[in-house]
Amino acid sequence: MLPFILLGILQGLTEFLPISSSGHLALAEQLLGVHKPGIVFDIFVHFGTLLSVVWVFRQRILRLVLAPLRGGEDLRLLGMLIVGSIPTGLLGLALDSAAEAAFVRSWAVGLGLLVTACVLIIAERLAPHSRPRPNPPAPFPEREGGAPLPVPGRGRGRGRILEQLTWRDALWIGLAQGVAVLPGISRSGSTIAMGVLVGLRRTDAAEFSFLLFIPAIVGATALKLAEALSDPAAHSALWGSYLAGTIAAFLSGIVAIHFLMRFLRERRLTPFAIYCLALGLVAIAWHWVR
């Protein structure tokens, strides 16, 4: 059961930090000899990370669910999530076979991590308006639902808030998420970086990234569910381990989301870029020396 818990923790942390969960899982298999239990376990741990997003953003998600009845900005944001999910789904289907082939090649995973590092660095270089300033000791005022309102020149970076997202912005962020199906290219890193590039503040870009994760993982799970449950008896002895991994992914995902949101209020994405750069070089070097 312990390997399932460790893999669940790894999935929960790396899914939301901009360092690529698929890249870490692929390298764990190749460098450490730790093998994934299979597609059923993948679905379970991704469900755990999905629950992490639902729990952390439960107030926002409830408003989005009720948006068709209430209208207003929440309905507009719901439309943005739908628009962003279209290119994600199309690219995900187109690149699925390439992603599976790249998963078993450490050099391909390493290149993906280098791409993630470059994307994060470019986002910081080309979006100077998003550079944060130190938070004041006084608390932020809040908009409806508990989310902080922007205060000019105070904390959380400059830039547009989530309610100012445009249809074109949503399409670009959805494209970034679709490309991130390739191992090593971080889904959260790509979408947050693209959000920053189109002018969003880091924290608002991260919130949209996490909300956009929900339809993406629901769609991917629906496609693989039939395959996963084709022989349920084969997993009868593993349901307890699957559940343990799911709980581990759920709890570590909550920790990762809260950590990243706090981090982005005061700091840049550069430390994550440096980490991805170093890990990517290690992965490529491993391919040549083994």
Write the layout of secondary structure elements.
Layout: H1 2-16, H2 21-32, H3 39-56, H4 58-70, H5 73-103, H6 106-126, H7 167-179, H8 187-197, H9 202-228, H10 239-266, H11 270-289
Helix pairs in contact: 1-2, 1-3, 1-10, 2-6, 3-9, 3-10, 4-5, 5-7, 5-9, 6-8, 6-11, 7-8, 8-9, 9-10
What does the model show?
This protein has one domain. Helix content is 72%, strand content 0%. The chain contains 11 helices and no strands. α1 runs parallel beside α10 and α3 runs antiparallel to α9. The longest helix is centred in the first third of the chain and has 31 residues.
Concise overview:
This protein is an all-alpha fold and 290 residues long. The protein contains eleven helices and no strands.
* Tally of alpha and pi helices: 11
Strand share of the residues?
Answer: under 5%
Task: Look at the structure and give the mean pLDDT.
Answer: 83
- Total count of strands: 0
Shape: globular
Radius of gyration: 19 Å
**Largest sheet at a glance?**
none
Q: Which class best fits the helix and strand makeup? A: mainly alpha
| Low-confidence regions | 132-156
Give the ordered list of helices and strands: HHHHHHHHHHH
Q: What's the domain count?
A: 1
How far apart are the termini? Answer: 30 Å
Helix content: over 70%
Q: Tags for this entry?
A:
290 residues, mainly alpha, 72% helix
